[in-house]
Write a structure and sequence with these properties.
The chain is mainly beta and about 300 residues long. It is built from no helices and 23 strands. The strands form six sheets. Strands 11, 12, 13, 14 and 15 form a five-stranded antiparallel sheet that branches. It has a four-stranded antiparallel sheet with strand order 3-4-5-6, with no helix packed on it. Strand 14 and strand 15 form a beta hairpin. The radius of gyration is 19 Å and the shape is globular. The protein starts with 6 loop residues before the first strand and ends in an 18-residue tail after the last strand.
Length: about 300
């Protein structure tokens, strides 16, 4: 493989969610590749790939596969001095594609947040990089599409002393409406967000600063921010001498929220975790799934149509 990693692109055809059949299995290689999600449409499948060599550049690649798994188109974005980590890919309200949110500029030696809008022909509509303070580094993860056609970018902003949970809200043109920073005294990070029925935003991640978090262990954290960017509350989940992290959050059919992540106890195997909370952050239940791996993480979760 010439020391190159390859993406294993697998699409499963589901029959009433009961019998999974492997329809096709496609391997696509552009270099050292990471594909974070797959977007299904009537005409085929789209994916965003962060691709390159072990060092810079790492381009953003927008791929389209037809319904039988043939690679029809791949469009490459970025130059030799850039690194893109586009975890998110989804359609906006006007059927344009949104990609984001991690970016590094070698020329500026600076980590920033990134958001790109692409037309159906893969041409750029706009591209924005966000860094309110050029002396600090911004580490982006997933992007959430809000009801008002804007976007929430959960992240971490860090310097040499600590890192704080950081969130920006942008409108449909990518212009910043507000930003929010949760001030801690150690390192904290946000990964994902969801919107409540009253248009608050629930942001999930991990914290060394709050709850049982300390220099050695993390608590999972949920931060509630209102539609104007003001903090309403924060709640932590975890125990002493245990590390817990929330990675993804989705709204469930019953008006609550499902969160996926991990729980790690020193000297034991890591556990994948799922939490269910209400819109006020009250814990409905939490489940752990033990694996025989030092690290076991749920990076995504989807609720079935029947609510299971």
């Amino acid at each position: 493989m010439n020391n190159l990693f390859k993406i294993l692109f697998v699409v499963l055809s589901m029959c009433k969610f009961a019998h999974a059949q492997n329809t096709f299995n496609i391997t696509t290689s552009f270099g050292v590749d990471v594909a974070s999600n797959i977007l299904e449409t009537d005409s085929g499948y789209y994916t965003s790939i962060s691709s390159g060599q072990p060092t810079l550049p790492r381009n953003a690649i927008f791929c389209f596969y037809d319904t039988t798994g043939n690679l029809i188109r791949n469009n490459i974005y970025g130059d030799s001095l850039e690194l893109y980590n586009d975890h998110s890919l989804f359609l906006d309200s006007k059927n344009n594609f949104i990609m984001g949110a991690g970016y590094f500029s070698l020329k500026q030696n600076h980590y920033q947040l990134s958001l790109r809008k692409i037309a159906s022909n893969a041409s750029n509509i706009w591209l924005h990089h966000y860094a309110q303070d050029t002396t600090r580094s911004y580490y982006g993860n997933w992007v959430y599409n809000t009801v008002d056609s804007g976007f929430i970018l959960p992240a971490e902003v860090a310097d040499s002393i600590d890192g704080n949970i950081y969130v920006i809200k942008v409108d449909s043109s990518g212009t910043i409406k507000w930003d929010y920073e949760l001030l801690g005294n150690k390192y904290d990070q946000a990964f994902d967000a969801a919107e409540t029925i009253i248009h608050d935003y629930l942001v999930v991640g991990w914290t060394n600063s709050f709850g049982n978090g300390n220099l050695n262990f993390r608590d999972a954290i949920v931060v509630c921010i209102d539609s104007s960017g003001n903090n309403k509350w924060k709640k932590t989940f975890g125990a002493s001498n245990v590390s817990e992290t929330m990675y993804r959050i989705i709204s469930s059919h019953d008006g609550n929220f499902i969160i996926s992540g991990e729980r790690f106890i020193v000297g034991q195997y890591g556990n994948s975790s799922i939490w269910k909370i209400d819109s006020l952050g009250n814990l409905k239940w939490q489940k752990y799934y033990l694996t025989k791996s030092n690290v076991s993480e749920f990076y995504g979760i989807q609720e079935l149509a029947n609510g299971q």
